[in-house]
Write a structure and sequence with these properties.
- With about 475 residues, this protein is mostly helical.
- The protein contains 28 helices and two strands.
- Strands 1-2 form a two-stranded antiparallel sheet.
- Helix 17 runs antiparallel to helix 19.
- It is elongated.
- About 10% of the residues have low confidence.
């Protein structure tokens, strides 16, 4: 049998020595030629044997492979994924009386992306296999597969394949070209989820189910983003809709996810943390790292109040472990800084008012006495400034005392306080339905990228939603709220 006349060009492509003008022809020829594939398989095996570092790198994105191919004299491993992951190969079949080749896209047995796409090839359920490392999720999908999908104009499957292979940026570009319908909105939600842009994902998911409440992938994506945003009841409702659709595989996975969400709802409904939080303020055992995981916002509130009523270094020191857990959860050092501020404060001055403050925040003081305490704390000044801050916020006086509170917190550099003060500043500057508040609220919300501040960010979103509702923009308000 005569040797394939394309072997030399295929070999040159592998070595990174083929002119760019001839690359397309090689990519078109390879899926049809077993001889060229065998040659590449042998070349890849030799390349892997002499470079363990390269073989450990796993699948490449399209952009990475293109960049390597452009460097002449350097071996390119663009076909590692093709040879090593046979499940991801593209086969072109030319049938009689057809002018267009049919792209048959075979995917790995497990998916690496939790979200759902509407491309036909991705509708069949595959179990989710999340990466254990911090790397971006990706599947081994061959370069020529992507090229064939693009050539055919199969954009729904193409964007799903790009996102699944880790090239989310290109997938977003493809999504921008699609019709503005429910399927596109659902796919855009999936892409935002892959980029961990949860607020954008939520908006797209809601638009998708508004346009088509029978589109199951949209409900799936809504469930995922709601769970990420700490909205377990929204997630539960969406997972129930997926289960009701009865899709093979997807329904079973949704049942598992729903069970986990139900446990979360049950845990969040518990009042035990409130009881133990108030006990901590009264001198009882400190809350734990598990409480930080389950109830991050409530735990932080009780932690700060416990620091405010501390009247000795021992009272402060017993809260250091809790501060460390809070800082680990937030990725900041703000809780530890609060401990240091309390440790350096005047315990003599704080002892005079700590008992009253304790009565206030554990709801054992009347509103009238609480108002008097705020004024008393203001007069005592710097030694009890954090108590004045806490009492004013507890009694919802953040708007009228905003300038004073901002001056106190300016040196703390703590988003927990800053986000709250920004909300109150905007509310005091633009009362009622003044639309000038909208860009300011949206601007502050754009900084909400840390889940540790989700309560504060939720309060900002609620304020923006109320403004939108008051001005007749009901759908936008629903998304924000």
């Amino acid at each position: 049998m005569a040797e394939c006349d394309q072997l030399a060009r295929t070999s040159a492509y592998f070595d990174g020595e083929l002119p760019d003008a001839e690359i397309a022809a090689v990519l078109t020829h390879l899926p049809t030629c077993a001889e060229c594939q065998r040659m590449l398989g042998a070349a890849v095996a030799v390349d892997a044997a002499v470079s363990s570092e390269r073989s450990g790198q796993g699948a490449r994105t399209v952009d990475e492979l293109a960049a390597r191919r452009s460097r002449r004299g350097v071996r390119v491993i663009a076909f590692v994924a093709v040879i090593a992951a046979a499940a991801a190969l593209l086969f072109w079949f030319v049938r009689p009386k057809q002018t267009e080749p049919r792209v048959a896209l075979a995917l790995p047995a497990e998916r690496a992306v939790s979200a759902r796409f509407t491309g036909a090839a991705f509708m069949t359920h595959r179990p989710y296999a999340p990466l254990r490392s911090g790397d971006r999720a990706h599947e081994a999908i061959a370069l020529e597969t992507l090229a064939a999908l693009e050539k055919k104009g199969d954009n729904r499957n193409l964007l799903a394949a790009l996102a699944s292979s880790g090239d989310v940026a290109r997938a977003v570009q493809i999504a921008a070209k699609l019709p503005d319908d429910a399927a596109t909105a659902s796919d855009r939600a999936a892409l935002a989820l892959a980029s961990r842009d949860f607020e954008t994902a939520l908006a797209h998911a809601y638009r998708a189910v508004d346009l088509d409440d029978k589109l199951v992938p949209a409900w799936w994506n809504l469930a995922l983003v709601a769970r990420e945003l700490g909205l377990p009841r929204v997630a539960a409702d969406a997972f129930k809709r997926v289960i009701a659709a009865g899709e093979r595989g997807w329904s079973d996975e949704a049942k598992t996810e729903l069970a986990a969400v139900a446990r979360q709802i049950e845990a969040e409904s518990s009042t035990d943390v409130d009881t133990r939080g108030r006990a901590m303020i009264d001198g009882g055992p400190a809350l734990t790292a598990d409480d930080v995981t389950r109830f991050p916002a409530l735990t932080r509130i009780y932690f700060l109040d416990a620091l405010r009523v501390a009247t000795s270094k021992a009272d402060v020191e017993r809260l250091r472990l809790l501060a460390a857990a809070l800082d680990q959860q937030s990725g900041t050092a703000t809780a530890a800084a609060a401990v240091e501020r309390s440790a350096a404060a005047s315990f003599a001055a704080r002892s005079k008012v700590a008992g009253k403050y304790r009565e206030l925040v554990t709801r054992r003081m009347s509103a009238e006495d609480g108002a008097k305490l705020v004024d008393e704390l203001k007069l005592l000044g710097a030694p009890v400034a954090d108590l004045y801050f806490g009492a004013a916020v507890f009694l919802a006086q953040g708007k009228q005392r905003n300038a004073e509170l901002r001056a106190i917190a300016s040196g703390w550099k703590d988003p927990w306080f800053d986000l709250l003060l920004e909300r109150d500043r905007i509310a005091s500057t633009y009362p009622g339905d003044d639309l000038r508040a909208e860009p300011e609220l949206a601007g502050v919300l754009a900084s909400c990228t840390n889940p540790a501040w989700s309560l504060r960010c939720g309060q900002l979103a609620e304020a923006l939603g109320a403004l939108l509702l008051a001005t007749g923009r009901i759908e936008e308000a629903e998304v924000r709220v």
